[in-house]
Design brief:
Helices cover 74% and strands 1% of the residues. By secondary structure, it is mostly helical.
Length: 322
């Protein structure tokens, strides 16, 4: 198992290195290239001497490889994601104020999604082609096809201006853990993000269980006298978890992406609002820093999913050694 984890970790580090190089290179494709912050700060009519001086002061005058080495060194040893010339702050100082809020929002939605979607998918599979299955499948299709901003608007209209009159946005300027100390204002954002995830995961869980239930070893277990409950939870459920664990790992970027829109609609001061503001103000370093951070969380989620999949199905890590 240790070899399996180390191999997956090494693969994740290679992908992370490629992402770092790409995010570092993207600013070169701006208008005015890497000197765009100088023109944005000093103005389009600034003299070449002023631009050159600004570049020297902020480390923009070096060669590509020199700047890349400095960027990697600052990122690895100092957790420095760059400098925002628009806000005159380091990117890490900016996003560190908002990342905990988004993490708690996405993590809470992920836990609720698992607790709701997996049992719902199992119930749909065991009651296939019944009224329960039809209603759950139809609701899942509607939610899966619905844009996240439209769902947020409908939820705000239904529960913010009608019964039961829930707050349409969390209180401003709250601490990240206010989700647990003052949860009423977070009910609608968390519910919206959870509904979007439940719709997709429950369908995958239903399909995975149905695929397992027709396997030969399930028929063998039933032939040996195992009751339906034992067949479902002892044999079918664990084998159906393999693809679900993979999907959960891949759903992390989807959760962060959904959180960006949901935070903007509900006016929640998280990473989503900061990303939108940075994009509107052409704050490229902040946008790239947030992109790199989300990529790191995505790789971490995939790594954890691979490890969990190896624990659930030992054949995967054994086959990977051949």
């Amino acid at each position: 198992m240790l070899v399996y984890i180390l191999r997956r970790l090494f693969q994740s580090l290679i992908v992370l290195a490629i992402i770092v190089v790409v995010t570092f290179t993207l600013p070169y494709f701006q208008p005015q290239g890497i000197l765009a912050p100088a023109y944005a700060t000093l103005g389009q009519r600034s003299t070449p001497t002023a631009i050159r001086t600004f570049a020297l002061q902020h480390g923009l005058a070096g060669s590509y490889l020199t700047r890349l080495w400095q960027y990697v060194n600052q990122l690895v040893f100092h957790l420095n994601l760059g400098h925002s010339f628009k806000q005159n702050m380091s990117v890490w100082q900016i996003i560190s104020l908002y990342v905990p809020r988004t993490i708690w929002l996405a993590l809470t939605a992920l836990i609720l999604t698992i607790l709701i979607a997996i049992p719902l998918g199992v119930i749909q599979a065991t009651r296939r082609n019944t009224t329960v299955d039809y209603v759950a499948t139809g609701s899942a299709f509607v939610l899966y096809a619905m844009p996240s901003f439209l769902l947020c608007i409908l939820v705000i209209d239904a529960f913010g201006f009608h019964w039961p009159h829930l707050p349409v946005s969390p209180p401003s300027g709250v601490a990240p853990w206010a989700l647990f100390t003052d949860p009423k204002g977070f009910i609608l954002p968390v519910a919206s993000l959870t509904l979007l995830s439940v719709a997709a995961l429950s369908r995958f869980m239903r399909g995975a269980v149905l695929e397992v239930l027709v396997q030969d070893y399930i028929r063998t277990a039933r032939a040996k006298g195992c009751n339906n409950r034992r067949v479902l939870w002892r044999h079918a459920f664990r084998n159906a978890l393999g693809p679900i664990i993979t999907i959960l790992g891949l759903s992390i970027p989807g959760l962060f992406g959904g959180a960006l829109i949901i935070e903007d609609v509900f006016n929640y001061a998280g990473l989503g609002v900061q990303t939108v503001n940075a994009a509107i103000n052409f704050d490229v370093p902040t946008v790239l820093g947030i992109t790199l951070l989300v990529a790191i969380f995505t790789l971490l989620g995939n790594l954890l999913a691979d490890v969990a999949l190896g624990l659930v199905n030992p054949r995967i890590r054994i086959e990977g050694t051949k």
